[in-house]
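user: At home tonight, take the chain set out below, taking as long as you need, and be ready to discuss the fold:
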Amino acid sequence: MAISNSQYDKIIREYDEARLRHARELSARKAEINSKIPEYKPLEDQVSALSMAYARMRISASINPDFEAVKKEYHEKLLDIKLKKNRLLEQYGYSKDYLEMEYDCNECKDTGYVDGEKCSCFMKKQVKLVYDFSRMKEFLESNNFSLLSKDYYQGEGLRQFEHAVTTCKNFINNFYSDYRNLLFYGTVGTGKSFLSGCVAKELLDKGCSIIYISAVNLFQTISNYIYSPAKETYIWINESLLECDLLIIDDLGTETTNDFIRTHLFEIINERNLRNHSTIISTNLSMEDIRSRYSDRVFSRICENYELLQLSEIKDIRIQKKLEQSG
């Protein structure tokens, strides 16, 4: 997933601050121990002296026939001092690891990287940046599988909904192995945005980078990137639209459509397809409406590369819920 240099620097600063904070906390704990346990500091000094002597011995290890014996003695002395230090700490009511360095993340030791690869904690920080931008938190609280209900569906509408739910769960379970795209289309209030939210919630919990954005905000963001005097402010957003693991475009068709919209919708669909990055689109438009409104080439890309999931033949679920609550 793409983030800007400034965002990358912000994450790295967070790691730097975490290491500095923990180093200061450790320094304070050491000062506390040296103050409360006078016998502890001499043991620390012995470790330092032993280490310096051992380092000098290693320089001449290849010509010193007794080096292995010296090495064994060195480690035995270190172990003996360690045991004495542990006994002192416990004697004064401290845990044995009281003077160990602490980390926010024990995997990467607050560096963000493990064996040259981004740590999972780094990826979570990236996801949070996009999560905050998409403003998904409140939306996903009311749109996730824990709230799924078939009570408002019947007949063909129920069959369509069950098929869409099964498709969504397969999409989630095989997200890392299969490249797929989904288009939810149909009448208002039939669960299209709800199912998009279900997918987003499950994949966010797996650590995927997701942007969930309305069509209106999507094209306004692209316009800002292209035409705003402060273009650099929008660079990372534009990059993320193409690089995030999953882009969800909600309510396609609610924007005022023109040639600018047609061109950039095609570019997003086409470029993400070339990069094998999945996209979900929800719309109240029919397939014929999509063709006439966005051009044959947009329609063609969608038909070729998206699973088409129709949701219809149901009264607006949102209205039904409102009536039940008021009743």
In short: The longest helix spans residues 5-36. The chain has two domains: 17-91, 135-326.
